Amino acid sequence: MKLEDRHAITVLAQASTMDSSAAAAQQGPVQVDGRITSHREYEASNGPMLLFTLDNTLKGVMFASVWSQADRAEILRLAEEGGTVRIEGKMTTYRGEPSLQAQSIVAVP
Hints:
The chain has about 110 residues and is of the alpha/beta class. It has helices spanning about 5-15, 20-25, 65, 70-80; strands at about 15-20, 30-45, 45-55, 60, 85-95, 95-105. It has a single domain, classed as CATH 2.40.50.140. It has four helices and six strands, in the order αβαβββααββ. It is globular.
């Protein structure tokens, strides 16, 4: 495991879960709870990826390398049902806007 991966895991373990508006102000590892209000699969040159919007405000992506390993059927079911999900990933900016790079998407119990 690379040093930066261990650092990211440590930071994520210490992070508290937040909503999409609080997450938009962050940079780095986050856990975000919210509802996927729109989504679509996009065919990129390196394979399909998931594009989504959380709570009608925060745009996100699950890149092909992660999406190909994810439980796609379960994630799409959660998105269609509109229940609350927890997304672990990293906040970045894309074209000057906050963006969530998802590593996992699971149902919130």
